[in-house]
Amino acid sequence: MRRKRQDKGDGLIALAEVLTASGIPKLLLHAWERRYGLEPSERSPTGRRFYTPEQAERLRLLKACSDGGHRISTIASLPIEQLQRLEAEIVARGALGDLLDAVRTMDSDRLQALLQDRAERQEPEEFIRATALPLMRDIGSLWAEKDLTIAAEHMATAEVRRVIGGLFDRCPPPAEDAPRLVATTPEREEHDVGALVATLIGRLNGWNAVFLGANLPAMDIAEAAHRRGVRCVCLSAVHGRKAALDRHLRALRSALSPEIEIWIGGPAYRAVPPIDGVTFIDDFDGFAEALSSAGGLQTGD
């Protein structure tokens, strides 16, 4: 059901149509209204709710993204463009079945061909968002549930790393005065895809980013950072004990100049308590935002 607003003539959508289009149960929508301020555009004198097309689309996206695993509390305030990107990632993630089948059967040739096909069809950031990172998360979950052998996980990681490495050729060369970063993993952390991705995203965002490989002691990272004259050091960790990661971070922080930032990401770092001068970045968008903010500070110095 639609009606016209008398003041502006904008088309409004009745509650029943919004619920049907979005798949949101009525009680859930009312709860979202209370908790996150998702109020309708208008209410009739009898209390009927009416929404703008933009509001209706936003509610549909919120439902799709929450069904896809995102907490409503973290996405309720996101702009609609970002919700659309999240939905696209969820759709792409749902189409990972052929890739996972190749991983399970350890068909490296097929996996490499499938990954390469996606990398050629997708922009580099889209490939990272919609293919590489979701695939690695799914592989990690399957391995943790003992539904995937460690050999299959290693094979898949090698193929993903290989394709991501090829994406560096599509990055523009950094400007001479571009801000610099290095990316790596702490000691005993061999899973370096996260650090490799950080380097690639840095390059795509105009940084002079260098990947140092995996499993580096704090003193070696600090030496490389000072030699490169970096703005920040990026660390990624999938596994590792909290105490060991904490010691490594504190040693690195002490060895680095105060103006060099440390950004950390990955599930292993979630348990590490806060450290002054160390910033935990939770997701892809947070990392891109940090690059934009810090890069702007750098070029303005």
Task: Describe the protein's topology.
Layout: E1 2-4, E2 11-14, H1 15-22, H2 26-36, E3 42-43, E4 49-51, H3 53-67, H4 72-75, H5 80-94, H6 97-104, H7 108-121, H8 124-144, H9 150-167, E5 180-184, H10 193-204, E6 208-211, H11 218-228, E7 232-236, H12 242-255, E8 261-265, E9 278-280, H13 284-300
Helix pairs in contact: 3-5, 5-8, 6-7, 7-9, 8-9, 8-10, 9-10, 11-12
Entry keywords:
301 residues, alpha/beta, Multidrug-efflux Transporter Regulator, Chain: A, Domain 2, Methyltransferase, Methionine Synthase (B12-binding Domains), Chain A, domain 1, Rossmann fold, 3 domains, five-stranded parallel beta sheet, four-stranded antiparallel beta sheet, 13 helices, 9 strands, globular, disordered N terminus, disordered C terminus
Give a description of the structure.
With 301 residues, this protein is of the alpha/beta class. It folds into 3 domains: 77 residues, Multidrug-efflux Transporter Regulator, Chain: A, Domain 2 (Orthogonal Bundle), CATH 1.10.1660.10; 74 residues, Methionine synthase domain (Methyltransferase, Methionine Synthase (B12-binding Domains), Chain A, domain 1, Orthogonal Bundle), CATH 1.10.1240.10; 127 residues, Rossmann fold (3-Layer(aba) Sandwich), CATH 3.40.50.280. It has a 5-stranded parallel beta sheet with strand order 6-5-7-8-9, with helices on both faces. Strands 1-2-4-3 form a 4-stranded antiparallel beta sheet. Strand 1 and strand 2 form a beta hairpin.
